[in-house]
Input
Amino acid sequence: MGILERFWLVILIAAPLAAIVAEPAPIAKHGCPDMCGNVSIPYPFGTREGCYYNEDFLISCDNTFSPPLAFLRNGNINVTNITLEGRVHTTQFIAKNCHDKFGNQTQSYQAWFRLWLNGIYTISDTENKFVAIGCDTIASVQGFQGKKSYTTGCISKCDSIDYVANYTCSGIGCCQTSIPTRTSFIKVRVNSTDRHRGVWNFSPCSYGFIVEESKFNFSSNDLLDLQNVLEKPMVLDWSIRDDTHACNKTEKANACQRNSDCVPVDDGYRCKCSKGFEGNPYLPGGCRDIDECLDSSRNDCKDMKCINTEGSYNCSCLKGYHLVVIKDEQGCVANQRHDWIRILLPVGKYTFYSTSK
Ligand SMILES: *[C@@H]1O[C@H](CO)[C@@H](O)[C@H](O)[C@H]1NC(C)=O
Ligand SMILES: *[C@@H]1O[C@H](CO)[C@@H](O)[C@H](O)[C@H]1NC(C)=O
Ligand SMILES: *[C@@H]1O[C@H](CO)[C@@H](O)[C@H](O)[C@H]1NC(C)=O
Ligand SMILES: *[C@@H]1O[C@H](CO)[C@@H](O)[C@H](O)[C@H]1NC(C)=O
Ligand SMILES: *[C@@H]1O[C@H](CO)[C@@H](O)[C@H](O)[C@H]1NC(C)=O
Ligand SMILES: *[C@@H]1O[C@H](CO)[C@@H](O)[C@H](O)[C@H]1NC(C)=O
Ligand SMILES: *[C@@H]1O[C@H](CO)[C@@H](O)[C@H](O)[C@H]1NC(C)=O
Ligand SMILES: *[C@@H]1O[C@H](CO)[C@@H](O)[C@H](O)[C@H]1NC(C)=O
Ligand SMILES: *[C@@H]1O[C@H](CO)[C@@H](O)[C@H](O)[C@H]1NC(C)=O
Output
């Protein structure tokens, strides 16, 4: 077979193959909805029986909203994003305690809220902070880690808006604290020491909330503007809790499917595609091989032929060709025909071996 014929043969075979492989991997079980409004729902989550791993992973899709809204189980916690890396992005209420200019409490807000999470969720201690805002503000968060409880919080007092600096939550007008790990129940409370008298014109309220740190940037305008904000973004961690020791057991004793690894976390485990594989490790069929050869940034074969293997790839020369290294460049040239090829084609990225990819 001539060089050109071989070249075209490779192109013709490769094109339809590439089209098949490029199809996006499914994220939900076959026949199950994989979206609720703007939120994608990857298995083990699902919107109905037969679609989730177990009932803890139920996401209720409320179609009375437009676009539809996703909620955790049957509760009222809004879901905005779900990742297979173990995070669920949600929104959560702000506790508020406001006063009028006489120091009388304005009754239209909740000065506290509580949040129970089911077994698979905890509040992410790495992604969130507890934040309190106000110039006459005491805020606390009481939390439970299993049966153990803790209380933490902070105080912010200021006489004048002039001391309140933008973009820093450092204690004046805004204070923050970390949340302990593995919290599954919280109660957030806010109060004041002097009912906002004296600061009422620029800080009529105390606010307390748990917020995704990367989405929070304090501004002095928050002192007034948060009156009109109901919720803030908050991140939950999730894991499969059906068997704490699942990762130590033999294959199939846990939810991790083919070509994936079991990763123990806190009180449960998660699954992760093994190196060289991608997709949803929880779905029947497991993770799919990454064809590194389709994407030059995923292999370093350069001008050599890239051979995809399960979980990896090899670089080699076509049969009848051999590896030649010229300075730092390497490539494949035909056995024996070395000489006339060198004469016909300049060495470099235009030599014919670049077509043997
Ligand atoms: C949903 O996505 C659309 C289009 O990307 C966007 O305009 C809309 O604001 C989103 N809605 C919500 C609730 O995030
Ligand atoms: C859920 O989130 C949407 C969009 O952010 C918001 O309009 C709605 O009020 C929220 N509902 C509840 C019950 O939290
Ligand atoms: C959800 O999270 C993933 C992973 O962090 C991100 O790539 C994606 O853009 C997010 N989707 C939305 C709608 O925020
Ligand atoms: C608010 O406080 C003032 C002064 O303390 C009092 O006279 C008034 O009755 C209060 N108003 C209400 C609505 O409670
Ligand atoms: C903080 O920034 C807001 C705009 O985001 C501005 O209106 C306000 O005056 C600034 N406050 C201070 C103290 O600089
Ligand atoms: C706020 O503090 C006052 C006394 O300082 C107390 O009477 C009141 O019950 C507190 N409110 C809340 C919601 O904790
Ligand atoms: C907060 O917002 C200001 C103004 O937009 C920006 O300069 C600053 O980098 C932001 N800080 C954070 C931590 O995002
Ligand atoms: C599981 O394996 C880890 C590491 O090999 C070990 O530390 C742990 O004690 C094991 N747990 C059980 C329940 O066997
Ligand atoms: C890839 O290379 C390895 C090690 O050199 C070899 O064992 C294996 O057979 C090669 N696989 C293919 C498909 O060429």
Notes: Confidence is low (pLDDT under 50) at residues 1-20, 343-357. Residues 307, 309, 314 surround 2-acetamido-2-deoxy-beta-D-glucopyranose (ligand 9) (CB under 6 Å).
